[in-house]
Automatic annotation (TrEMBL):
GO terms for molecular function: 1-deoxy-D-xylulose-5-phosphate reductoisomerase activity; isomerase activity; manganese ion binding; NADPH binding. It comes from the Bacteria. The keyword Cytoplasm does not apply. Keywords: Isomerase. Pfam families: DXPR_C. This is DXP reductoisomerase C-terminal domain protein. Residues 23-86 form the DXP reductoisomerase C-terminal domain. Residues 1-22 are annotated as: Disordered. GO terms for biological process: isopentenyl diphosphate biosynthetic process, methylerythritol 4-phosphate pathway involved in terpenoid biosynthetic process. InterPro entries: DXP_reductoisomerase, DXPR_C, DXPR_C_sf.
Amino acid sequence: MLGVRTAGHRGLPGGGAGPARRRAGGCLTAVYNAANEEAAAAFLAGRISFPAIVRTIADVLADADEWAAEPATVDDVLDAQRWARERARRAVTQEVMPTR
């Protein structure tokens, strides 16, 4: 019988830290999503490698402790997203694309 299993996060760069941080609450889901969008856009534009997407998100989340509090307003969430996008852009500029 054919079955489907989830791949899990062990052995992947970041070791599942992303899902754990997203579940942590506060504005961290918004931070994760914004960082993911910026990293994916950089990959699609050829500015970073595929594995660098995970590193970029991990770098952003590592610095995101200030956004762990529950947002009081929508502006708090928007501020978290703006911060995460800027932080992800900085992380992307520090990535070095491998030469072929």
